[in-house]
Specification:
The protein contains ten helices and eight strands. The protein is of the alpha+beta class. It folds into four domains: 89 residues; 50 residues, Roll (SH3 type barrels), CATH 2.30.30.60; 116 residues, 2-Layer Sandwich (Alpha-Beta Plaits), CATH 3.30.70.100; 71 residues. It starts with a helix and ends with a helix.
Length: 354
């Protein structure tokens, strides 16, 4: 009986330490989840903290083992060797992605909802995690890109203030370049672009390549704007009686000298209306992430203004504080609804995939 009590007494520190470690991990998990429930972009911070706490708890359990100091030192040395080997083996992948995610957050050049191009991949960011960045393409597909790839490849982010969109067309050498420039500039303006311009890109063997361009201020309609620009170019060139040829176009048909290669009734044909824009279907998740990001930023600005007003004091400041608190509650409700909608759609999508 005395021997059993001695064994229990020797393992008591280990059991107490184990209980404390589990309680700390569980408490940290619940606390951080509640604190960052409105910030999906803080997921990498949560994972880093939980990983550090888990390693610290493991070391505490080794120290609490009822063994001699020599054995404890050997176990700690073994853990150190294993961690060193793991870091060395995964430095190019796991640790590399973690460091890359920290770099992306520190630079802050992109955030959820932004149009982005990484090497040959183009889409909108839906999520930026600890190990990867999720991008939704124009075909509505979700592509997972390792963070280390994001920092080792050229990254192009479309500015929220606007971007230049372009379209090229090849015209014959018989078309005066002044006329072509005027028609294409007018077409770009008709497409809703600002500060439009036209460049001569190439003098080919059989045609001249022109590029029409302009500033698009509403970047959310990037796909539709590119299509609209090319439609307006077609309408403008056909309306002006200008024949469109490709760089390798060779006319080997017997045509009348005044014949033009134009679609029939091009001027009188009505353009079909598009009831649904491509962006609404292609970037649904990215648009939801962008909306949630805007709501989070608005709440942060309100919190800063509330803190400043509370320091000022006074009746006017208190009245303004009440108004801002009501506004914050309204924005927070919209944010919660947006996040709940995203999670619901994600679960439905996973259920359908399953």
């Amino acid at each position: 009986m005395a021997g059993l009590l001695e064994i229990v007494r020797s393992f008591l520190p280990l059991l107490v330490t184990l209980a404390l470690v589990l309680a700390i991990l569980l408490g940290a998990h619940i606390t951080l989840r509640r604190r960052w429930a409105e910030r999906p972009e803080a997921q990498f911070q949560f994972q880093l903290i939980m990983l550090a706490l888990t390693l610290a708890g493991l070391l505490a359990l080794v120290v609490a083992l009822p063994v001699s100091d020599t054995v404890q030192g050997q176990l700690l040395s073994l853990i150190g060797i294993l961690l060193s080997a793991a870091i060395a083996l995964s430095s190019a992948t796991f640790i590399g992605n973690i460091l890359a995610s920290i770099m992306l957050k520190a630079v802050g050049s992109a955030r959820p909802g932004d149009f982005i191009t990484v090497a040959s991949l183009t889409g909108r960011i839906t999520e930026m995690g600890l190990l990867h960045t999720e991008i939704q393409t124009e075909y509505r597909d979700l592509v997972t890109v390792p963070n280390i790839y994001m920092v080792t490849q050229p990254v192009k982010v479309v500015r929220a203030s606007g971007t230049i969109i372009t379209a090229e067309v090849s015209l014959g050498f018989d078309v005066p370049h002044g006329l072509a420039r005027d028609v294409l500039r007018t077409a770009a303006e008709a497409a809703g672009l600002r500060d439009c311009f036209v460049h001569v890109r190439e003098l080919g063997d059989f045609a001249v390549t022109y590029r029409a361009a302009g500033l698009l201020e509403d970047v959310q309609s990037l796909l539709s704007a590119r299509s609209q620009l090319q439609q307006c170019m077609l309408d403008g060139l056909h309306g002006a009686g200008i024949e469109i040829v490709s760089p390798t176009f060779m006319n080997t048909r017997a045509l009348d000298p005044g014949a033009r290669v134009l679609p029939p009734e091009a001027r009188d044909r009505e353009r079909p209306s598009e009831s649904v824009q491509a962006e609404e279907v292609a970037f649904d998740k990215a648009e939801e992430a962008a909306s949630a990001e805007k709501l989070r930023l608005a709440i942060e600005h309100l919190d800063e203004e509330l803190a400043a007003l509370r320091e000022q004091g006074g009746d006017e400041a208190q009245q303004r504080v009440k108004q801002l608190e009501l506004e914050r509650e309204r924005l927070n409700s919209r944010l919660q609804a947006a996040l709940a909608g995203m999670q619901s759609k994600e679960r439905d999508g996973n259920a359908v995939a399953g």
